[in-house]
């Protein structure tokens, strides 16, 4: 259980697991929204990962709150039919970090709204977009604390040198997500 706000009533959290081309993704949330997305750690590229397009809920399908249903549909589209993500609603998000007014929240919302599928920005560019050009390190901290990766696409934030940088799911997963987006963006062009 997680308190929805300071002094608020606890959420009745549900858990869903989605089998994806990158492995099992765990999604936690309640009736109010998605709390967290836990990505698998990838140390090596999965053989045939791109061919494995069947994204399906493998655990927790019963009694799934609407935000989790929307999240699994959005992630399924992201992996299997990326062009359709723009027409799907982004699931409601209900992690306490996203409820508080903070620079981290500002950075995460800016990233979600301004950096589109198949694009990448540097930490410094994202700091500029979020309104504080000298906060590149704080942007890195915001990326580390992102509770809903892929939905809020922290994998699209790279170093100014062009190096991909760190990622919660590991360097291999970040590179896989970036190349997945680049490949599908080129197909759409």
TrEMBL record:
Species: Bombycilla garrulus
Catalysis: reaction(s): a 4-O-methyl-thymidine in DNA + L-cysteinyl-[protein] = a thymidine in DNA + S-methyl-L-cysteinyl-[protein]; a 6-O-methyl-2'-deoxyguanosine in DNA + L-cysteinyl-[protein] = S-methyl-L-cysteinyl-[protein] + a 2'-deoxyguanosine in DNA
One GO term describing the cellular component: nucleoplasm
Top-tier EC class: transferase
Protein name listed in UniProt: Methylated-DNA--protein-cysteine methyltransferase
InterPro entries: MethylDNA_cys_MeTrfase_AS, MethylDNA_cys_MeTrfase_DNA-bd, MethylDNA_cys_MeTrfase_DNAb, MethylG_MeTrfase_N, MGMT_N_sf, WH-like_DNA-bd_sf
NCBIfam families: ogt (TIGR00589)
UniProt-listed Enzyme Commission number(s): 2.1.1.63
Domain Methylguanine DNA methyltransferase ribonuclease-like: 20-90
Main subcellular location: nucleus
Function: Involved in the cellular defense against the biological effects of O6-methylguanine (O6-MeG) and O4-methylthymine (O4-MeT) in DNA. Repairs the methylated nucleobase in DNA by stoichiometrically transferring the methyl group to a cysteine residue in the enzyme. This is a suicide reaction: the enzyme is irreversibly inactivated.
GO molecular function, one term: metal ion binding
Cofactor: Zn(2+)
Family matches, as Pfam families: DNA_binding_1 (PF01035), Methyltransf_1N (PF02870)
Keywords attached to this entry: DNA damage, DNA repair, DNA-binding, Metal-binding, Methyltransferase, Nucleus, Phosphoprotein, Transferase, Zinc
Residue span(s) of domain Methylated-DNA-[protein]-cysteine S-methyltransferase DNA binding: 103-182
Xref: Gene3D superfamilies: Methylated DNA-protein cysteine methyltransferase domain, Winged helix-like DNA-binding domain superfamily/Winged helix DNA-binding domain
Family classification: Belongs to the MGMT family.
Subcellular locations according to the entry: Nucleus
GO biological process, one term: DNA repair
């Amino acid at each position: 259980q997680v308190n929805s706000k300071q002094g608020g009533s606890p959420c009745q959290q549900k858990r869903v697991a989605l089998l994806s081309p990158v492995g099992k993704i765990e999604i936690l949330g309640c009736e109010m929204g998605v709390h967290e997305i836990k990505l698998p750690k990838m140390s090596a590229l999965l053989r045939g990962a791109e061919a494995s397009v069947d994204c399906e809920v493998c655990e927790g399908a019963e009694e799934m709150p609407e935000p989790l249903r929307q999240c699994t549909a959005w992630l399924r589209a992201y992996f299997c039919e990326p062009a359709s993500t723009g027409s799907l609603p982004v699931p409601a998000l209900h992690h306490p970090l996203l409820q508080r007014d903070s620079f981290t929240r500002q950075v995460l919302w800016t990233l979600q709204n301004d950096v589109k599928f198949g694009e990448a920005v540097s930490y410094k560019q994202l700091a500029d977009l979020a309104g504080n050009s000298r906060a590149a390190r704080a942007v890195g901290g915001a990326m580390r604390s992102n509770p809903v990766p892929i939905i809020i696409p922290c994998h699209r934030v790279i170093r100014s040198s062009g190096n991909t940088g760190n990622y919660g799911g590991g360097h291999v997963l970040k590179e896989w997500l970036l190349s997945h987006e680049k490949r599908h963006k080129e197909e759409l062009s």
